[in-house]
Amino acid sequence: VTSGSEFGLRYGRVKWPADYPDSLPPVVEIGPGSPTGMTFGEGAAFPEKYQHALFAGDWSYGHVYAVHLTPNGASYTASYEKFISGTPLGVTDIVVNPRDGALYFITGGWDIETRLYRARYVGDESSDAASGDRGHQPEANKRGIRHRLERYHTKQSSEAVDFAWPYLGSNDRFIRYAARIAIENQPMSQWRRRALDESNTQAALTALLAVARCGSNDVQSDLLASLSRLKWKQLSRVQKLALVRVYQLTFIRMGPPSEQWRAQVLNALKSHFPSQNLSVNKELARLFAYLDFPKLVPKVLSLRDKALTQEAEIHYTSVLRNVRRGWTPKRRRRYFEWFQKAETFQGGHSLPGYLDTIKKQAMEHLSAKQQKRLEPLLSQSDTGKTTGVSSASGSSARFVEDWTVEELAPRVQDGLSSASPKRGRKVFAKAQCFRCHQIEGQGGVVGPSLTNVAKRFSVQDLLKAIIKPSATIPRRYQNTIFRLEDGSRVVGRVVYLGRGKLTINTNIRNLSQQVKISRDEIVSQKPSPVSPMPAGLLNALTEDEIVDLIAYMRYVAGH
Q: Per mean pLDDT, which range of 434-438, 494-498, 508-512 is the poorest?
């Protein structure tokens, strides 16, 4: 965790997107859990890989993860594996004992028996003390810069602003972040004018973000004037997101702009909405809703109808809930009819409540006459009470062919040169891959991220993984078969360890489909040989669609 990190509240709808410039991306996304004790493997009598690992306890799911860090610029990226698992295994804390080199961890809490465990290595690999130097000197140098900047996060110094300023324009996001926090910790009188006058585009965006976070409303006009000098078409995607976020924070922290500035900001940005990038569109939609852009409704409704993920659809619907202008009777009906579709959306227990809140807030802006006209739509049962119905499962998709890896692999390989990644993204959505897998930050998290999958696997490997998902099942995505005393069995993943009970999710595509079983009922448990990912997903696709699908996954991995 880097100094000054800010991630928003990591719960529900108020999580910050990882690309916010006033936030930082995670080292690795593990998913739901209850993180407890952590320790590095330094000093453990383990193979070298595990001496460098970060061991992390997860109380809820009964795991100890081994997180393998890779230096990346001034910070790290990581992969992880389940190092130890158990049912129950409510890990509370963990440590390496320097005397015997074993890993010790303790369990307990919520009526789980308190126990002390020791994990030691028995095998042929060397467990001699590993070297701390793994040949990552360029990254170490960048981390050194970040650490020097972080000294000014907790102290004020006359040297801080001059030292940190050149790093506001760094290509390394973590260094930019550390430099900005260092400057924000100094008296604003030392850097306010310098920030408003900064001419380097990246440095200006970082410095103006600091002004938006630290300034009072008397600086708003000067801040908006500085932002207006930045030319949208000359900005990268990351810089466009930063610009929109600085505008957002300016109004969040300093209040609404004057009518003159409201019109000027809208005039500067409206021709660029919608853009070709989902993240930019989502943040521009938020900003325009706040600024009461009169043409927002038809544009956002169109984006919602074309969205490829339920997350994007929910976002755009939420954006419009408090918009007053731009509605027609037809658009109102179109807006509220969507909630019927949303009844098939799948997600956590909070999802139906969020959808109902969006709907109710939107209804508050209807006149009595409008409510009467829309009454059949408004009076329907609460959104989400039929979550997980069969219409969302894809079972009604038409059958094209029972494809095999052997026949598809050469055809796909030959067709890639003329394939369309853009069409492939639509196929990815059509095949409901977004329900379980993330790609480019969009989609579900119950399956592995596919953003860089084509860097690791060949075309044949990708096809085999899709057509024969049970051939190789990663342990972290494997179901467990529980056999009970009455002869029945439950197959799924443990999602919660309660007082004497386990909660099992029995349908990977419907997280609300859960079964509770008592620990006393369990006779045996073993890993399931059948993948949670259904077989035959490609059988509803044509050969051209499959080629475009693989092209999309390869394109994302390469860009």
A: 508-512
Does the predicted model carry a pTM greater than 0.85? no
Bridge partners, 65 (sequence order): 56, 82
Look at residues 260, 318, 261, 319 and name the one whose alpha carbon lies nearest to residue 288.
319
Q: Are 494 and 502 in contact (CB under 8 A)?
A: yes
The pLDDT value given to residue 390: 31
Phi-psi region of 78 (alpha: psi -120 to 50; beta: other; left: phi over 0): beta
The residue assigned the tokens 């394939």 is 419
Of residues 350 and 399, more confidently modeled: 399
DSSP string, 476-543: GG--EEEEETTS-EEEEEEEEE-SSEEEEE--TT-TT-EEEEEGGGEEEEEE-SS-SSPS-GGGGS-H
Please identify which residue in the block is written with the tokens 């009964």. Answer: 62
What single string gives the DSSP state of each residue in 35-65? Answer: EEEEEE-TT-SS-HHHHSPEEEEETTTTEEE
- Distance of alpha carbon 116 from alpha carbon 120, whole angstroms: 13
Of the two residues 387 and 68, the one the predictor is more confident about is 68
Helices (H), 127-236: 137-150, 160-164, 173-184, 192-197, 201-214, 220-228
Max CA-CA distance within the chain? Answer: 79
Give the strands of the sheet with 54-58, arranged side by side: 35-40, 54-58, 63-72, 75-85
pLDDT per residue as tens digits for the range 180-207? 999 999 999 999 999 999 999 999 999 9
Which residues does residue 71 pair with via DSSP β-bridges, in sequence order? 76
520 class by beta-carbon count within 10 Å (0-12 exposed, 13-18 middle, 19+ buried)? exposed
Partnered with residue 54 across adjacent β-strands are: 40, 67
In the chain, what is the straight-line distance between the N-terminal and C-terminal CA atoms, in Å?
A: 27
Helix spans in 364-420 (H): 368-373, 375-378, 405-415
| Segment (H or E) for 116 | strand 112-119
Cα separation, 52 vs 309, whole angstroms:
38
Nearest to 171 by CA among 136, 197, 145: 145
| DSSP 8-state secondary structure symbol assigned to residue 146 | H
- Asked if 273 and 299 count as a contact pair (C-beta separation under 8 A), the reply is yes
* pLDDT tens digits for range 469-504: 898 887 778 899 999 999 999 999 887 776 678 888
User: Which residue type, as a one-letter code, is found at position 82?
Assistant: K
